[in-house]
C-alpha cells in the first residue's frame, strides 16, 4: 500500500519536467522556511458576520475574518464559529433547500506515474519505476485504453452515471499522435518537455484522446482532465487550452475536475507544489474548458502551510472565474490528509486541518461563493459522521459512490473507498434531509423515497434501481467503511 513516500519520489531521475525535482528535496529542510505573515485585515469579525447575514457580497478581508473567527487573536473562538456556521447553514437552506445530492460514480484513474513531485501527494510513483527495463518495485499502475474501457463498462452495468478519472502526468502521455511527434522531436525530450516514448514503458497508456474515447462508453458522463493534465496534454506546443479541451470533448469528455487548484496563491504553490502550473495557468485552463463548452468543478486543498488569508484569496479566484464563465457546478473543499505525505514526514507541517477549520471552510465557501450553487462535503476526507456535520455547515452535496479510491487512501486516509445508495439514504435521512441522486451537472435530480428500498441508481444509462454492489440490507445501521471490492487495477 505504502508507496515508499519519503525522499525517493524521483529516484535518480532529476525532475523530468525541469521545474521541479532538484529543489524539491530541500523543501522540508527546516520548519517555516516559508514563514507567511499572520493574517491581519482592516475589517472586524462582527462587521464581516453582519455582511454575511445580510447576504452582501463578501470581500477577501471579510472572508479572512470569518475563517479566522477574528484575526485579532490566535485560535478559533467557538462561539463565533457557531455564528458563522449558522449563517452558512441558513444561506444553504435559502439557496438550495433541504435536498442532499450525491452521484453514482466510479473513480477510474489511469496511471500513477508522475514526476511533478507535489509534496502533499502520495498518489504518484516516480515514472522511471514504470520503465520497461526498471526493476524498482512500486505499488502503482498504468491502464491501457482497453483496460480503462473494461473497468467503465463493468461499472456502467452496475448503474453508474459518471466516471471520474484523474491521473499522474505520465511522461509517455501525449494528446494525440501529432503531439507525440512534436514532443519526440526535441533534442532531449525527457528534460525539455517531460517526455519519453511509450516504448520505454512496460505499459503504454495510449494518448489522452484514446483514453477519453475508451472511457466515454455507453452514454456515461466522463469527468476528467484537470488543469494540470490539460497542461501536460499541450506541453511543448503553443496550443490553446480551449483547442485541447475541444479535442478531448470530441473524443467524449463531458466535464473537467477542478483539482490541481490546491491553494491558488503562488507563494503557497512555491512551497507545496513547485513543479505544478501557477495560478494564472490554472485559471486559463479552466477558462479554456468553459470556452470549449464543458462544465467544471472547483476545489481547494487546504490545511497545510497556508494561512486563512490564502484561503480567502483562493475563494476570490474561484468567484471571479465563475463571474466570467458560469461553468462551475460545485465547490469541493479538500481537507489535506497528512499522514504519509512528504510535507508531514519532512516536518514541514505537523498535521492537517482541524475539524473546526473544515467546518469554517465549508461555511465561508457557502457565504463567499454567492455564484456557485453547490458545496460538497467529502466522506472520503472527513468520514461519515463529520461529513454529515459539514452538511449542516453550508454543504448540500455528499459527493459520490466512487467504488475505488487511490489518492486519499495512499496519503493515509481511513474512510474507505465506497458508499452504497443504502448508506447514503440512511445517513442523509438521519440528519432530517432529503436524499437525491444527481447527474454530474446537477441538472438531473431524483428524490429518493427512503421507504422504497433496496436503493440503487436510476440515472445512469444502464441503471435500473438495482443496488450498485452487494448491498447490506437497509435499516441495519451497520454501515461501516468500505467493504466493496474495487475494480481490479492493471499492474505494470
Ligand atoms: C492526485 S491529483 C491527480 C490529478 C493530477 N495529477 C493533478 O494534479 O491535477 C488530484 C488532486 O488530489 C488532491 N490531493 C492529492 N494529495 C492529497 C492529500 N494528501 N490530501 C488531500 N488531497 C490531496 C490534490 O488537490 C490534487 O490536485
Ligand atoms: N470530494 C472527493 C471527490 N469528489 C468527486 C465527486 O464524487 C464527483 O466526481 C464530483 O462531485 C463531480 O460530480 N472524489 C474523490 O475521489 N475524492 C474526494 O475527496
Ligand atoms: N473533486 C474533484 C475530483 C477529485 C477530488 C479529490 C480527489 O482526491 C480526486 C478527485 C471533482 O469532482 O472535480
Ligand atoms: S498532485 Fe497530481 S501532479 Fe502532483 S504529484 Fe500528485 S499526481 Fe502528480
TrEMBL record:
Region (Disordered): 1-38, 436-492
Biased composition (Gly residues): 9-31
Biased composition (Low complexity): 470-492
Listed Basic and acidic residues bias regions: 436-455
Stored InterPro entries: Aldolase_TIM, CofH/MnqC-like_C, F420, rSAM, rSAM_sf
Regions crossing the membrane: none
PROSITE patterns with a match to the protein in the record: RADICAL_SAM
Keywords in alphabetical order: 4Fe-4S, Iron, Iron-sulfur, Metal-binding, S-adenosyl-L-methionine
NCBIfam families named among the record's database cross-references: PRK07360.1
Protein name: 7,8-didemethyl-8-hydroxy-5-deazariboflavin synthase subunit CofH
